[in-house]
Amino acid sequence: MTDPLAQVITLLRPRAVFSKVISGAGAWAVRYTEFGQPSFCAMLEGQCLLAVAGQEAVTLQAGDFVLLPATPGFTLSALQPGATTPLLRDPHDLPPVPEGEHGLRHGTPEGPPDMRMLGGYFAFESADAALLVSLLPALLHVRGSERLLTLVQLVRQECLAALPGRDLVLERLVELLLIEALRSGQHEGAPPGLLRGLADARVAVGLRLMHSAPERAWTVQALAREAALSRSTFFERFSRAVGLPPMEYLLAWRMALAKQLLSAGRLGVADVAERVGYSSASTFSTAFSRHVGVPPGRFARQG
User: Which residue of 24, 114, 126, 159 is surrounded by the most CB atoms within 10 Å?
Assistant: First the structure.
């Protein structure tokens, strides 16, 4: 059966852009502006404090990995911070740092650093990235994953190399990085979203059915029956885990697929309508226009 997590990442179309070494020493704190694109960091040594807007502050230590799918504003500091320094420009605009250089240094400039991390960001090329990112946790903190740290180091090495096929390799590495990070956060204690839904065995049945056959005329009753739950129990359990009622999630997923198919330009509106579960092009066009804001034909031309 279809893997919803892999499908979402495939639709997001992540593209590696940049990574750099960040270090700090002494008492320091720096406030990063809202970025909007996904970013990550892997702690190489030492400790620091990460305070993301709207989230509880977390202490990062060597071996930790953090993923911010939309990167809101955040503060990075020593465990005993100094005065916060607002950045005059987005720190992600800084150029890559060659191996052997200190990279971006916070706090005391002399002496060995108390903390070193590898930070990076990438872009989602999907036309529906905002919707898909909303299904992911705002902050994903993973501790002690050797696989993630290995992938981060591979991304770093590839970013610095000028080898043939570099961009293609980076795209594949970032896909692997995302999958590994997100499935590490797949547990029932996760915030509402796709990961928490997949951690619930009964809710996961409904998610996989919607993803594997979006063209079917699914109802809450039909999904509940496949999940071996009553209609009301399935509706409540799905809504609580995913953060959306089942039919709203199905609509969002169908529209995300429709955007991808229309952007590809290989199918007409009627064919796309059939692929995503609409009996006629006119019904699909009405639903698409209401959801996206433009008719599917115009969306395809713009794409």
Answer: 24
What mean pLDDT value characterizes the chain? 85
- Please report whether residue 85 resides in a domain: yes
Spatial distance between the Cα atoms of 203 and 74, rounded to a whole number of angstroms: 33
User: Does 34 lie in the same domain as 169?
Assistant: yes
- Please indicate, yes or no, whether residues 127 and 231 belong to a single structural domain of this protein: no
Per-residue pLDDT reduced to its tens digit, 227-237: 999 999 999 99
Give the Cα separation of 118 and 255 in Å (integer).
36
Query: Confidence band (pLDDT; 50, 70, 90) for 295?
Result: very high
What CATH number should be reported for the domain holding residue 88? 2.60.120.280
> What distance in Å separates the CA atoms of residue 107 and residue 26, rounded to the nearest whole number?
6
> CATH number of the domain that 293 lies in?
1.10.10.60
pLDDT band at 303 (very low <50, low <70, confident <90, very high): low
Give the residue numbers spanning the domain of 69.
4-184
50 and 125 assigned to the same domain? yes
Q: Are residue 160 and residue 258 in the same domain, yes or no?
A: no
Residue 179 lies in a domain: yes
- The C-alpha atoms of residue 75 and residue 258 are separated, in whole angstroms, by 38
